[in-house]
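Reviewers of the previous submission asked for a worked example of the structure-prediction workflow described in the proposal, so we include one complete record here. The input consisted solely of the amino acid sequence. No template or homolog information was supplied to the procedure at any stage.
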Amino acid sequence: MARHFTVIFEKEEEGGYHVFCPVLPGCHTQGETIDEGIRNIREAIQLYVESLVRDGLRVPEEGMPVDPNRDFRVHDIS
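From that input alone, the workflow returned the following C-alpha cells.
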C-alpha cells in the first residue's frame, strides 16, 4: 500500500537543509541539496514505517493541516 507523508524542508544557516516528517515523530534527516534531502527522507520514512510495522504498531495517517504562512515548497517525493 502506497503511503504519502508531508515533509518539511528548512534551510539551514550554515548551508543545506533539515528535513522532517511532522506526522512521524523523530523522523528527521538532512541534505546538502533538496535532491539529497528527498533521497534521505525517503529512506528515513521507509525505515521508520518498517520499524512500526515490525513492532506491530499503528502507522500514523497523514492529516496534518498545512500552514500557508510558513515559507516552504511542496515536493511530491512518492
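Residues 34-54 form the longest helix (21 residues). We consider this example representative of the routine output the project will generate in years two and three.
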